[in-house]
Specification:
- By secondary structure, the protein is α/β, with parallel strands linked by helices.
- It is built from 12 helices and 9 strands.
- 43% of the residues lie in helices and 18% in strands.
- A 7-stranded mixed sheet has the order 4-3-2-5-6-9-7.
- It is elongated.
Length: 271
């Protein structure tokens, strides 16, 4: 959709893009085509799209023959999409993407992948939800704020490394695919964007995922303090000492020096 067409549709709906909702509509058709080529959706494959907006990416995904579940929070856009795509291949969910029951949408471990130009305002919470699903997407391809993408891909010893980095990289191969300038969006965001892919390399038990999530959130909440002291306040000193010995790390270490594999060992030792 060209900018002139987008402005016309916005006017018809009486809309102004909501900064609070992270509504930045992608205008670059070549980039949208690149996203679909990189994802390579197959006929009848289940694809989850969050924040479809006016359906520029949705249209290309449907054209590939995929079955798309699109989650849209804005009721005006949801009504627009229902009218634009009267097809059984599109399942439109009008809801807050951070609160949707995805296990119910894809029951019984139905395989699906997630491809989206994610609203920046929800990206951290939504990706955390995907990482914690009992049967999460085998592949994710997201347009994100550059800072968020770098957090996902960060390794130990870097400023961007945190809880989300650990949880993403432990079970996924995370790649920064392409930097995206602000001028391909309307309205232009104040930051650069990046396309990030997460390819699942293993699926751990839900309890193990929850344990790791709790541990990393506690550890990085006070990232400048000795991790032994921080964890002892929640788990007890002796269990933490034993867990540190099992993981081969010292009491005084800071969380940004602990590898994802060591965090996994700690989480299991503290179960």
């Amino acid at each position: 959709m060209k900018k002139k067409e987008l402005l016309s549709e916005l006017e018809k709906l009486g809309m102004r893009p909501g900064r609070g909702l992270g509504q930045n509509f992608l205008l670059d058709g070549n980039l949208l085509d690149w996203i679909v080529r990189r994802a390579a959706p197959a006929p009848d494959e289940e694809i989850l799209e969050v924040g479809p907006g006016f359906g520029a990416l949705t249209e290309r995904l449907l054209a590939s023959g995929a079955r798309v579940t699109a989650v849209e929070y804005d009721r005006r856009l949801a009504a627009y999409l229902r009218e634009k795509f009267p097809t059984s291949s599109l399942r439109l969910v009008e809801a807050d993407a951070c609160k949707v029951d995805y296990a119910a949408l894809f029951p019984g471990g139905t395989p699906f992948r997630a491809i989206a130009n994610l609203p920046y305002a929800i990206s951290s919470v939504f990706i955390s939800r995907m990482l914690e699903l009992p049967c999460g997407p085998g592949f994710m391809l997201f347009m994100l704020q550059r800072e968020m993408g770098e957090r996902l891909a960060a390794g130990p010893g870097t400023k961007a490394y945190g809880s989300l980095s650990v949880r993403a990289s432990l079970d996924h191969e995370v790649r920064l695919e392409k930097l995206v300038p602000a001028d391909v969006f309307y309205p232009e965001p104040e930051v650069e964007s990046v396309i990030v892919s997460l390819t699942r390399v293993r699926q751990r038990a839900p309890e193990a995922v929850r344990r790791l999530s709790r541990l990393t959130r506690i550890a990085f909440a006070q990232r400048r303090k000795q991790m032994g002291k921080v964890l002892a306040a929640s788990y007890g000193k002796v269990p933490v000492e034993n867990a540190f010995a099992a993981a081969g790390i010292v009491w005084e270490i800071r969380p940004d020096r602990v590898t994802p594999e060591q965090f996994s060992l700690l989480a299991e030792a503290l179960a």
